[in-house]
Amino acid sequence: MFDLVIRNGHVVGPGIDTVMDVAVDGEVIAAIGHGLRGRRELDATGLLVVPGAVDGHVHIRTERAEWSYDDTFRTGSVAAAFGGVTTFLDQVQVEPGVRLCAALAGRQGEAQGECLVDYGFHVNPREPSRERIDEIPEVVQAGVPTIKFFMSYEGWALSDDLILRGMQHVAAAGGLAIVHAENKAVIEELVRQQLELGRSGPQWHAAARPASMEAEASHRALALARLAGARVLLYHVTAAESVEELRRARRHGDAAFGEACLHYLVLDESAILDPVTGPAFEVSPPLRDAGHRDALWRALADGTLDVVSTDHGPRRRVRDAAGELVPPPGTSGIEVRLALVHDLGVRTGLLSLQRWVEVCCTRPADVFGLPTKGRLLPGLDADIVLFDPDREVMLSAPALHSHVDHSTYEGMRVRGFPVTTISRGEIVVEDGTLAAEPGRGRLAPRGWRPPGRIG
Ligand SMILES: [Zn+2]
C-alpha cells in the first residue's frame, strides 16, 4: 500500500506513453505499473500524467530604481503550481559592488519560507571586473552551477574577455554558462540612427535589433564557450539564423544548448503594435516575424532547441505621460507555458506528446542541472502533473495567479490545462484549487548525474 496512487492516467515521459498507475511514497515516486493501490488514490482517467514542469528562466520580484518585477516568490510560485510547474529558477542579478555569494545568500533568504513549489537560482555577474568574475568558482561551490552572462544592455553587458574568463571558471567548475546573446554596440548604433530620423515608436523596436546581430552574438558566445571548454546555453533564441549557429556548434560536437521562450513561440512582431498591450512586448531580443517563429517550432521538434522557458517577469501597468495605464516591457508565462505549448505544439501536430514533456519538463531538468526533477522514475521527486487535454481556459489576468493586472496572452483560449499539481508527494493544487500553503517549497538540489554530463 503506497501513500498516494494516481490511477489510470495516460502517463507520458521519456520512454513511457501508456495508461498506467503512478505510486508515491513520502516525497518520491515509488513505482509505475498496473493495479497499484494507495491510502489515497486520484482517478486520472482521461487525463495526461506528466512530470512536474521546470521553468529555467524566471524573474521574481526585484526592486531597483529603473526596473522592477512584480511577482513575489509567493505569488510567482503559486502561479507556477497552477500551471503545472514544480520547479523554477530565478535570476540573481548582482548589483555592482556586491560579492556574488553575498547577493546569492540574500536572494536565497528572500525565497526561503515563501514558495509553494521548489526553486533554484542562476547567478548573473554584472560588474565588469576580473575580481567579480573570479568569484564564480565560489558560486558553483555554494550550489549554483549556472552562471548567466549578458552580451547586451548598458550596465549589464560584459566584454568578450570577461565572458571568456567567466566561461573558463564555469568550465573548470563543471557548470553551465548561460548567455543573452545580442550585439550591444550595433544595436546602440542602430537606435541612434533611428532617433536621428525621428523613429522612436514601437514599430522600430525590432529593426534596431536585427536577427543577424543576434546570430552574430550567438556565434561569438558559442565560439567563446568552445575556447573555454564550457557547456553553454543560449537563452531566448529568437532568430532562424541563431538556430543555424547552434546546429553548427552541435555538428562540431560542442555541448551547446538552446532555449526557446514562450512569447516568441506564441506571438509575432505584430503584437508590439497593439496600442493597449504592445508596450509589454518591447522586449529584447524582439518578437520577430512568423518565419522566425516557425523556425523555432521546427528547431524544438528536431531537437536543436532543447527547452521552452518563459522569461517570466510580469510587471504591473503604470501611468504614462498622458495618464493612460500601460504595461511596461515584460511578459508573464509561468502559469500558461505547459498549456500553450500543448495547445500550439501538440494539438497542431508540431510536437509529439513525448517531445512536449521533454521540452517543458525533462530537458530543462537535464540542461539546468536538477537531478531529482523532470522524470517519472522511482526514487526521483514525486513532482507530478495531471493535465486535462480537453479543459478549455480563457487566459486573462483575473483567471491567473501572478501579481499582475494584465496577461501577456489576454483573451486567448487554450484547450488543455493542468488540473492537479503534486510537489514532492504533496498535492499543492487539486482540481484547479489551491491545496497547500506557500512556504513548503525548497531549494532544489543542483548538479548533473553523472557529474559533469548533461543527459
Ligand atoms: Zn530573462
From TrEMBL:
Keywords: Hydrolase. InterPro entries: Amidohydro-rel, Metal-dep_hydrolase_composite, Metal_Hydrolase, Metallo-dep_Hydrolases_sf. It comes from the Bacteria. Residues 48-428 form the Amidohydrolase-related domain. Its cofactor is Zn(2+). One of its GO terms (cellular component) is cytosol. One of its GO terms (molecular function) is hydrolase activity, acting on carbon-nitrogen (but not peptide) bonds, in cyclic amides. It holds the Pfam family Amidohydro_1. Belongs to the metallo-dependent hydrolases superfamily. Hydantoinase/dihydropyrimidinase family. PANTHER family: COLLAPSIN RESPONSE MEDIATOR PROTEIN, HYDRANTOINASE/DIHYDROPYRIMIDINASE FAMILY MEMBER. This is Dihydroorotase/cyclic amidohydrolase-related protein. It comes from Gaiella occulta. The lineage of its organism: Bacteria, Bacillati, Actinomycetota, Thermoleophilia, Gaiellales.
